[in-house]
């Protein structure tokens, strides 16, 4: 009972606390996916390996071209092609991937997401998906998003939660920090 003699409400043990539930409503954009994919690339081992390999190609191409020039044969086609292909991949691949992800969501209209102690439920006019915290045990924050990441080797699960979708991003951050902390680097 409280001071006025009324019984105070206490949540049941299996009922989430009020601050454990955050709702979002948003329409995904190409920019959201580009930002999410870049965050995943920086935050995951597989993403860092992929970027390191592309940078290595960009560096090796000119080295091979310099070796070709030092032999007096001129620059062959393979080193030039390697540099141009690696640069194209570095610049265009993220845009192409983001465009493909957006195409998958464009006809689904507005998305809603509920982030709670039990996990994350994302719904649109065609489907509803529920992810447990075991499926997405980590998140990465960017200026405009929270990106939920899986723990498997290929980071096969990626959930995008735009900050513009909620009136209280700080509360969303607190729930994510509690259930899906940022991944350890390395």
Explain what this protein looks like in three dimensions.
By secondary structure, the protein is of the alpha+beta class. About 45% of the residues lie in helices and about 20% in strands. It has helices at about 30-45, 45-70, 75-105, 170-180, and strands at about 20-25, 110-115, 120-125, 130, 140, 145-150, 160. A hairpin with a 4-residue loop joins strand 3 and strand 4. Helix 1 (about 30-45) crosses helix 3 (about 75-105). The chain starts with about 20 loop residues before the first strand and ends in a 7-residue tail after the last helix.
Short structural summary:
The chain is an alpha+beta fold and 186 residues long. The protein contains 4 helices and 7 strands. It is elongated, with a radius of gyration of 23 Å.
Low-confidence blocks of residues:
5-16
Proportion in helices: 40-55%
Shape: elongated
Class inferred from helices and paired strands: alpha+beta
What percentage of amino acids are in beta strands?
Answer: 15-25%
Give the strand order, joined by hyphens, for the main sheet.
1-2-3-4
């Amino acid at each position: 009972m409280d001071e006025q003699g009324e019984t105070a409400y206490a949540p049941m043990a299996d009922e989430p606390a009020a601050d454990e539930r955050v709702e979002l409503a948003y329409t995904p954009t190409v920019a959201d996916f580009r930002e999410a994919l870049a965050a995943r690339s920086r935050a995951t081992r597989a993403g860092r390996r992929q970027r390191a390999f592309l940078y290595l190609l960009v560096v090796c191409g000119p080295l091979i071209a310099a070796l070709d020039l030092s032999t007096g044969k001129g620059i062959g086609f393979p080193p030039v092609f390697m540099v141009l292909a690696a640069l194209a991949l570095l610049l265009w691949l993220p845009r192409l991937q983001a465009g493909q992800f957006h195409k998958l969501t464009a006809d689904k209209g507005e998305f809603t997401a509920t982030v709670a102690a039990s996990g994350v439920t994302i719904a649109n006019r065609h489907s509803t998906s529920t992810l447990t915290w075991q499926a997405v045990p980590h998140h990465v924050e960017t200026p405009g998003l929270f990106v939920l990441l899986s723990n498997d080797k290929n980071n096969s699960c990626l959930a995008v939660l735009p900050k513009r979708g909620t009136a209280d991003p700080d509360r969303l951050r607190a729930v994510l920090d509690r259930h899906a902390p940022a991944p350890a680097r390395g």
